[in-house]
What we know:
- The protein is mostly helical.
- It folds into two domains: 4-89, Orthogonal Bundle (Rna Polymerase Sigma Factor, Chain: A), CATH 1.10.1740; 111-184, Arc Repressor Mutant, subunit A (Orthogonal Bundle), CATH 1.10.10.10.
- 70% of the residues lie in helices and 0% in strands.
- The chain has eight helices and no strands.
Amino acid sequence: MLKEKDIIAKCLKKDRVAQRRLYDLYKNQWYTVCLRYASQRENANDILQNALIKIYDKINQYDAELGKFSSWSYKIVLNECYSYHRKQVSQLSEVEIKDDVDMTTNDVTPIDKLSAEELIRLVQKLPNGYRAVFNMYAVEGYSHKEIASKLGISEGTSKSQYFKAKKILKEKVEYLINYRVYEKV
């Protein structure tokens, strides 16, 4: 069994078998990220394909002394997700925050009762802008200022889309929880 560093060394030589082994090592991690940002599996597949091309093309830039390969490749996949989203957003009009929208909520959601797969499906169903902002803020930990910069939107739009995404997800989660309870009764 080859170690990761040996597989990477072979990938540097464009070895297709090694590239496949590397893909097999990380495909679940990479694909899960793509699914969080894409509305459909086909889009997630496209994002992953583009990310793989970049990973293999830039693998010579990876430096094991600066960090783990998993972290380095994860950033490439994330950047490809952001690029995909920017293309989608450029086709949509920007939704600005309204003055009368209350941006705070203290509601506790029963989200922990859902499986990871159910949660990913719910996030996938969010509109493009809401989905990207939700992932970047809630999952990746970016600030609204950073999100605005990366996606080319205003900070207010980022906050508004995050608030609306949370509201939509909360309603869908509550519906699922209530539906399950009803089904069991």
